Amino acid sequence: MIEFVMLCTPVRRIYNMKKISVIRALCAICVICGYFSGVSLANDMNTPIGMATYLKNKQLPTLKTIDLWESQFGMGLKLTTTHYEIYTTLLDPLMLSQVPGFVESAYRSYQSQLPKPIETSAPLTVYLFANRQQWEVFTKDFVGPAAQIYLKIRAGAYYLNGACVAYNIGRERTFSSLGHEGWHQFNSRLFKYRLPSWLDEGIAMQFETTEYDKGLFTFTPDRNGYRLISLKRTFLKDAIIPLKTLVTLNPGEVVTENDDAVAAFYSQAYALVRFLREDNYGKRLAKYQNLLFDGLNGQWPLSQKNIKIAADRNIPITVDWNHEIGKVLFEHYIDSDYEKIEKEYIVFCRKITYPIRLR
Known about the structure:
There is one protein chain. With 359 residues, this protein is of the alpha/beta class. It has 2 domains: 6-190, no CATH class; 219-353, no CATH class. The chain has helices spanning 22-33, 48-58, 93-111, 132-143, 147-150, 171-190, 197-204, 225-236, 243-246, 251-255, 259-282, 285-297, 304-311, 319-334, 338-353, and strands at 6-7, 65-71, 74-80, 84-88, 124-129, 157-160, 163-167, 210-213, 216-219. A hairpin with a 2-residue loop joins strand 2 (65-71) and strand 3 (74-80). It is globular.
């Protein structure tokens, strides 16, 4: 017999769920203890109890505990790993058996961006819903008046109020979204200073593609076909954003232009992070890591006005702030000779997109 804990409210009151009724609680206890006759729910993977039994029997090394979670959509599961709490209504055995390994692999890879690892004092929260309908209902309550902005996300996930919120769009794409948004969650939780857009988005895209082996994931940014194809098309269309401009932009500035501008920003930011980490056997890797480490510890050389915005995430980021710190940080930590470094960056971009063949 397997024992479960009934959870009615998520940790830290991130989301106010309905209180379970006494009758429903008693029924759940009866089911768990096996007092109902007929088909055993503990063996039915179409039920949360059956799925929990299945996951526990697999003895996944990264999964610490499994609890029942009473969501507004009915019974779900809470999966706890060393660094994450995952609240889910999904009942897909393959995905749920891999999610614990995925988030812990992601956490380890986020750490690799820094010169030395750091530790979290509290678990990171993920909501993974079975379908878009549940995700939309949750988002309307969780986000509040600004929900309509997030509901425009066509397929994927978002990070807000300390939590990653996703829904099932297929194994590969769901994990890609979680890897991307998980980086935003990681640095928002742990870094004293928020990152300029090119750096934050550029790093997040390093966690969109993976290889799976024996319960764990390896992130493979060099196989991110979506970003590489976009980068190739940007070059073919001669729509390259100059490096001096790229490090000052934020996504909101290009969204209002056209799809080519959006693709150029994201693909070039993705390539710039790879360039700083990989080019010429990682000759700029130490500079890149120092940039992040000083952001982590609140040691960037900024004016008092910009420090206040960098440190207080309740203050909205302005276009002017992103323009200024993007330029200041790149020149201080990486290089102030844009003409020289851009030539090397362009060569790197052409090299990584050379194998890409467009139809």
